[in-house]
Protein backbone atom coordinates (compact mmCIF):
# COMPACT_ATOMS: atom_id res chain seq x y z
CA UNK A 1 0.00 0.00 0.00
CA UNK A 2 2.80 2.39 0.94
CA UNK A 3 4.54 1.65 -2.33
CA UNK A 4 1.39 2.50 -4.26
CA UNK A 5 1.01 5.85 -2.51
CA UNK A 6 4.62 6.71 -3.36
CA UNK A 7 4.25 5.63 -6.97
CA UNK A 8 1.02 7.56 -7.49
CA UNK A 9 2.52 10.67 -5.81
CA UNK A 10 5.57 10.68 -8.06
CA UNK A 11 3.54 10.15 -11.23
CA UNK A 12 1.01 12.83 -10.24
CA UNK A 13 3.73 15.34 -9.41
CA UNK A 14 5.53 14.77 -12.71
CA UNK A 15 2.37 14.89 -14.79
CA UNK A 16 0.98 17.99 -13.12
CA UNK A 17 4.18 19.94 -13.63
CA UNK A 18 4.45 18.75 -17.23
CA UNK A 19 0.84 19.64 -18.08
CA UNK A 20 0.86 23.05 -16.43
CA UNK A 21 4.25 23.81 -17.99
CA UNK A 22 2.92 22.98 -21.42
CA UNK A 23 -0.19 25.12 -21.15
CA UNK A 24 1.20 28.01 -19.15
CA UNK A 25 4.19 28.52 -21.45
CA UNK A 26 1.74 28.56 -24.35
CA UNK A 27 -0.29 31.25 -22.59
CA UNK A 28 2.82 33.27 -21.78
CA UNK A 29 3.93 33.00 -25.39
CA UNK A 30 0.55 34.30 -26.54
CA UNK A 31 0.72 37.22 -24.13
CA UNK A 32 4.28 38.13 -25.16
CA UNK A 33 3.46 37.83 -28.86
CA UNK A 34 0.50 40.20 -28.58
CA UNK A 35 2.57 42.65 -26.54
CA UNK A 36 5.34 42.68 -29.14
CA UNK A 37 2.79 43.23 -31.89
CA UNK A 38 1.30 46.18 -30.01
CA UNK A 39 4.73 47.69 -29.42
CA UNK A 40 5.56 47.32 -33.10
CA UNK A 41 2.32 49.10 -33.98
CA UNK A 42 2.64 51.81 -31.33
CA UNK A 43 6.23 52.25 -30.13
CA UNK A 44 5.34 55.29 -27.98
CA UNK A 45 3.14 53.12 -25.72
CA UNK A 46 6.05 50.76 -25.11
CA UNK A 47 6.56 51.64 -21.45
CA UNK A 48 3.00 50.97 -20.41
CA UNK A 49 2.72 47.79 -22.46
CA UNK A 50 5.96 46.59 -20.89
CA UNK A 51 4.57 47.09 -17.40
CA UNK A 52 1.28 45.41 -18.23
CA UNK A 53 3.10 42.50 -19.85
CA UNK A 54 5.16 42.00 -16.71
CA UNK A 55 1.99 41.82 -14.64
CA UNK A 56 0.25 39.44 -17.01
CA UNK A 57 3.25 37.14 -17.06
CA UNK A 58 3.44 37.22 -13.27
CA UNK A 59 -0.21 36.27 -12.93
CA UNK A 60 0.08 33.44 -15.44
CA UNK A 61 3.16 32.24 -13.65
CA UNK A 62 1.28 32.15 -10.34
CA UNK A 63 -0.78 29.19 -11.53
CA UNK A 64 2.42 27.43 -12.52
CA UNK A 65 3.93 28.09 -9.10
CA UNK A 66 0.82 26.80 -7.33
CA UNK A 67 1.14 23.54 -9.24
CA UNK A 68 4.84 23.41 -8.45
CA UNK A 69 4.02 23.84 -4.77
CA UNK A 70 1.51 20.99 -4.90
CA UNK A 71 4.09 18.83 -6.64
CA UNK A 72 6.74 19.71 -4.05
CA UNK A 73 4.33 18.85 -1.23
CA UNK A 74 3.58 15.50 -2.87
CA UNK A 75 7.27 14.72 -3.29
CA UNK A 76 8.84 16.06 -0.10
CA UNK A 77 6.14 16.49 2.53
CA UNK A 78 3.42 14.07 1.55
CA UNK A 79 0.72 14.20 4.22
CA UNK A 80 -0.76 10.83 3.12
CA UNK A 81 2.34 8.88 4.10
CA UNK A 82 1.89 9.78 7.75
CA UNK A 83 -1.61 8.30 7.83
CA UNK A 84 -0.43 4.86 6.74
CA UNK A 85 2.34 4.15 9.21
CA UNK B 1 9.88 4.89 8.40
CA UNK B 2 13.01 6.06 6.67
CA UNK B 3 13.24 9.81 6.11
CA UNK B 4 13.46 10.81 2.49
CA UNK B 5 15.08 13.88 0.96
CA UNK B 6 14.01 17.11 2.58
CA UNK B 7 13.15 20.58 1.38
CA UNK B 8 12.91 23.81 3.25
CA UNK B 9 14.57 25.00 6.45
CA UNK B 10 16.80 22.71 8.48
CA UNK B 11 17.06 22.92 12.25
CA UNK B 12 20.69 23.47 13.14
CA UNK B 13 20.51 24.22 16.86
CA UNK B 14 18.47 25.40 19.80
CA UNK B 15 18.54 28.46 21.99
CA UNK B 16 16.39 28.19 25.17
CA UNK B 17 14.35 25.44 23.53
CA UNK B 18 13.56 27.54 20.46
CA UNK B 19 14.72 25.74 17.32
CA UNK B 20 17.12 27.75 15.15
CA UNK B 21 16.93 27.03 11.42
CA UNK B 22 19.56 27.84 8.84
CA UNK B 23 17.20 30.27 7.06
CA UNK B 24 16.79 32.20 10.31
CA UNK B 25 20.55 32.71 10.56
CA UNK B 26 20.87 33.74 6.92
CA UNK B 27 17.86 36.07 7.31
CA UNK B 28 19.61 37.91 10.13
CA UNK B 29 22.84 38.13 8.14
CA UNK B 30 20.99 39.47 5.10
CA UNK B 31 19.13 42.06 7.20
CA UNK B 32 22.39 43.21 8.74
CA UNK B 33 23.98 43.39 5.30
CA UNK B 34 21.12 45.49 3.91
CA UNK B 35 21.37 47.91 6.83
CA UNK B 36 25.15 48.21 6.48
CA UNK B 37 24.85 48.67 2.71
CA UNK B 38 22.30 51.45 3.14
CA UNK B 39 24.54 53.12 5.74
CA UNK B 40 27.59 52.84 3.54
CA UNK B 41 25.79 54.24 0.50
CA UNK B 42 24.36 57.24 2.34
CA UNK B 43 27.18 57.96 4.79
CA UNK B 44 28.12 61.67 4.93
CA UNK B 45 27.19 62.97 1.47
CA UNK B 46 29.75 65.46 0.15
CA UNK B 47 29.45 68.60 -1.96
CA UNK B 48 31.58 67.19 -4.75
CA UNK B 49 29.86 64.03 -5.87
CA UNK B 50 31.85 60.86 -5.33
CA UNK B 51 31.43 57.67 -7.36
CA UNK B 52 29.58 55.91 -4.56
CA UNK B 53 27.17 58.79 -4.16
CA UNK B 54 26.64 58.98 -7.90
CA UNK B 55 25.71 55.30 -8.17
CA UNK B 56 23.33 55.52 -5.22
CA UNK B 57 21.63 58.64 -6.58
CA UNK B 58 21.19 57.13 -10.03
CA UNK B 59 19.61 53.98 -8.61
CA UNK B 60 17.30 55.94 -6.34
CA UNK B 61 16.22 58.22 -9.18
CA UNK B 62 15.58 55.21 -11.44
CA UNK B 63 13.48 53.43 -8.84
CA UNK B 64 11.56 56.59 -8.01
CA UNK B 65 10.70 57.12 -11.65
CA UNK B 66 9.55 53.52 -11.96
CA UNK B 67 7.41 53.77 -8.82
CA UNK B 68 5.70 56.95 -9.96
CA UNK B 69 4.43 54.99 -12.96
CA UNK B 70 2.09 53.16 -10.59
CA UNK B 71 1.37 55.71 -7.89
CA UNK B 72 0.72 59.43 -7.87
CA UNK B 73 3.75 61.64 -7.53
CA UNK B 74 3.40 62.67 -3.88
CA UNK B 75 2.33 59.17 -2.77
CA UNK B 76 5.32 57.64 -4.54
CA UNK B 77 7.58 60.18 -2.87
CA UNK B 78 6.08 59.46 0.55
CA UNK B 79 6.23 55.68 0.48
CA UNK B 80 9.36 55.36 -1.63
CA UNK B 81 11.48 54.13 1.29
CA UNK B 82 9.14 51.24 2.06
CA UNK B 83 9.15 49.87 -1.49
CA UNK B 84 12.87 50.47 -1.95
CA UNK B 85 13.64 48.57 1.26
CA UNK B 86 11.36 45.74 0.20
CA UNK B 87 13.07 45.53 -3.18
CA UNK B 88 16.60 45.66 -1.79
CA UNK B 89 15.89 43.08 0.89
CA UNK B 90 14.25 40.58 -1.47
CA UNK B 91 16.93 41.08 -4.10
CA UNK B 92 19.78 40.44 -1.70
CA UNK B 93 17.94 37.50 -0.14
CA UNK B 94 17.45 35.93 -3.56
CA UNK B 95 21.04 36.44 -4.57
CA UNK B 96 22.48 35.30 -1.24
CA UNK B 97 21.68 31.70 -2.17
CA UNK B 98 24.68 31.69 -4.51
CA UNK B 99 27.14 31.95 -1.61
CA UNK B 100 28.27 28.40 -0.80
CA UNK B 101 26.90 27.15 2.50
CA UNK B 102 24.27 29.88 2.56
CA UNK B 103 20.53 29.31 2.12
CA UNK B 104 18.31 31.96 0.59
CA UNK B 105 15.93 33.23 3.26
CA UNK B 106 13.25 33.53 0.59
CA UNK B 107 13.41 29.78 -0.16
CA UNK B 108 11.68 29.29 3.19
CA UNK B 109 7.91 29.70 2.97
CA UNK B 110 7.72 31.20 6.48
CA UNK B 111 9.86 34.18 5.44
CA UNK B 112 7.87 34.89 2.28
CA UNK B 113 4.57 34.46 4.10
CA UNK B 114 5.71 36.93 6.73
CA UNK B 115 6.83 39.40 4.09
CA UNK B 116 3.59 39.13 2.13
CA UNK B 117 1.28 39.39 5.15
CA UNK B 118 3.26 42.33 6.52
CA UNK B 119 3.14 44.10 3.17
CA UNK B 120 -0.60 43.64 2.78
CA UNK B 121 -1.32 44.77 6.35
CA UNK B 122 0.86 47.83 5.83
CA UNK B 123 -0.98 48.64 2.60
CA UNK B 124 -4.33 48.39 4.41
CA UNK B 125 -2.99 50.72 7.11
CA UNK B 126 -1.68 53.23 4.57
CA UNK B 127 -4.93 53.18 2.62
CA UNK B 128 -6.90 53.71 5.81
CA UNK B 129 -4.60 56.55 6.87
CA UNK B 130 -4.75 58.29 3.50
CA UNK B 131 -8.44 57.94 2.86
CA UNK B 132 -9.99 57.49 6.28
CA UNK B 133 -13.37 55.84 6.71
CA UNK B 134 -14.02 56.28 3.02
CA UNK B 135 -11.63 53.39 2.39
CA UNK B 136 -13.92 50.98 4.23
CA UNK B 137 -16.69 52.01 1.86
CA UNK B 138 -14.69 50.56 -1.04
CA UNK B 139 -15.31 47.08 0.37
CA UNK B 140 -18.99 47.44 -0.40
CA UNK B 141 -18.36 49.51 -3.49
CA UNK B 142 -20.78 48.26 -6.16
CA UNK B 143 -23.21 46.86 -3.58
CA UNK B 144 -23.24 45.03 -0.24
CA UNK B 145 -23.39 41.71 -2.09
CA UNK B 146 -19.76 42.15 -3.12
CA UNK B 147 -18.45 42.24 0.46
CA UNK B 148 -17.38 38.56 0.66
CA UNK B 149 -15.74 38.76 -2.76
CA UNK B 150 -13.79 41.89 -1.81
CA UNK B 151 -12.62 40.35 1.46
CA UNK B 152 -11.64 37.14 -0.35
CA UNK B 153 -9.63 39.23 -2.81
CA UNK B 154 -7.72 40.81 0.07
CA UNK B 155 -6.99 37.37 1.52
CA UNK B 156 -5.80 35.74 -1.71
CA UNK B 157 -3.31 38.54 -2.35
CA UNK B 158 -0.77 37.65 0.37
CA UNK B 159 -1.17 33.95 -0.42
CA UNK B 160 -0.29 34.44 -4.06
CA UNK B 161 2.54 36.89 -3.24
CA UNK B 162 4.11 34.48 -0.75
CA UNK B 163 3.72 31.37 -2.86
CA UNK B 164 5.06 33.07 -5.98
CA UNK B 165 8.28 34.19 -4.34
CA UNK B 166 8.77 30.93 -2.46
CA UNK B 167 8.00 28.70 -5.44
CA UNK B 168 10.27 30.57 -7.81
CA UNK B 169 13.28 30.72 -5.52
CA UNK B 170 13.08 27.19 -4.14
CA UNK B 171 12.28 25.83 -7.61
CA UNK B 172 15.43 27.48 -8.92
CA UNK B 173 17.44 25.93 -6.10
CA UNK B 174 16.05 22.47 -6.82
CA UNK B 175 16.84 22.79 -10.53
CA UNK B 176 20.34 23.99 -9.71
CA UNK B 177 20.83 21.09 -7.29
CA UNK B 178 19.71 18.50 -9.83
CA UNK B 179 21.86 19.98 -12.60
CA UNK B 180 24.95 20.10 -10.41
CA UNK B 181 24.25 16.50 -9.37
CA UNK B 182 24.31 15.45 -13.04
CA UNK B 183 27.16 17.62 -14.35
CA UNK B 184 28.96 19.45 -11.55
CA UNK B 185 31.68 21.22 -13.50
CA UNK B 186 30.74 23.98 -16.00
CA UNK B 187 27.15 23.18 -16.92
CA UNK B 188 25.49 24.89 -13.87
CA UNK B 189 27.02 28.29 -14.70
CA UNK B 190 24.44 29.37 -17.34
CA UNK B 191 21.66 28.06 -15.06
CA UNK B 192 23.10 30.19 -12.27
CA UNK B 193 23.10 33.24 -14.54
CA UNK B 194 19.46 32.56 -15.40
CA UNK B 195 18.64 32.15 -11.70
CA UNK B 196 20.31 35.46 -10.93
CA UNK B 197 18.14 37.16 -13.54
CA UNK B 198 15.04 35.42 -12.20
CA UNK B 199 15.87 36.51 -8.67
CA UNK B 200 16.00 40.11 -9.85
CA UNK B 201 12.71 39.72 -11.72
CA UNK B 202 11.01 38.18 -8.68
CA UNK B 203 12.12 41.01 -6.40
CA UNK B 204 10.87 43.44 -9.03
CA UNK B 205 7.52 41.68 -9.39
CA UNK B 206 6.96 41.55 -5.63
CA UNK B 207 7.63 45.27 -5.29
CA UNK B 208 5.59 46.34 -8.28
CA UNK B 209 2.65 44.15 -7.29
CA UNK B 210 2.65 45.70 -3.82
CA UNK B 211 2.79 49.15 -5.41
CA UNK B 212 -0.10 48.24 -7.68
CA UNK B 213 -2.13 46.94 -4.72
CA UNK B 214 -1.47 50.21 -2.92
CA UNK B 215 -2.52 52.14 -6.03
CA UNK B 216 -5.70 50.07 -6.27
CA UNK B 217 -6.46 50.67 -2.58
CA UNK B 218 -5.91 54.43 -2.94
CA UNK B 219 -8.07 54.71 -6.04
CA UNK B 220 -10.99 57.04 -5.57
TrEMBL record, chain B:
GO molecular function, one term: proton-transporting ATP synthase activity, rotational mechanism
Cell compartments where the protein resides: Cell inner membrane; Cell membrane; Membrane
PROSITE patterns: ATPASE_A
Superkingdom classification of source: Bacteria
A Pfam family that the UniProt record links to this protein: ATP-synt_A
InterPro entries recorded: ATP_syn_F0_a_bact/chloroplast (IPR045082), ATP_synth_F0_asu (IPR000568), ATP_synth_F0_asu_AS (IPR023011), F0_ATP_A_sf (IPR035908)
GO biological process: proton motive force-driven plasma membrane ATP synthesis
Residue spans crossing the bilayer: 20-43, 79-97, 109-128, 174-194, 200-218
Stretch forming the signal peptide: none
Membrane topology: Multi-pass membrane protein
CDD domains: ATP-synt_Fo_a_6
Keywords: ATP synthesis, Cell inner membrane, Cell membrane, CF(0), Hydrogen ion transport, Ion transport, Membrane, Transmembrane, Transmembrane helix, Transport
Main location: membrane
Keyword Transit peptide: no
Gene Ontology annotations for the cellular component aspect, listed alphabetically: plasma membrane; proton-transporting ATP synthase complex
Known function: Key component of the proton channel; it plays a direct role in the translocation of protons across the membrane.
Similarity annotation: Belongs to the ATPase A chain family.
Oligomer and partners: F-type ATPases have 2 components, CF(1) - the catalytic core - and CF(0) - the membrane proton channel. CF(1) has five subunits: alpha(3), beta(3), gamma(1), delta(1), epsilon(1). CF(0) has three main subunits: a(1), b(2) and c(9-12). The alpha and beta chains form an alternating ring which encloses part of the gamma chain. CF(1) is attached to CF(0) by a central stalk formed by the gamma and epsilon chains, while a peripheral stalk is formed by the delta and b chains.
Name by which UniProt lists this protein: ATP synthase subunit a
Organism: Dictyoglomus turgidum (strain DSM 6724 / Z-1310)
The gene coding this protein: atpB
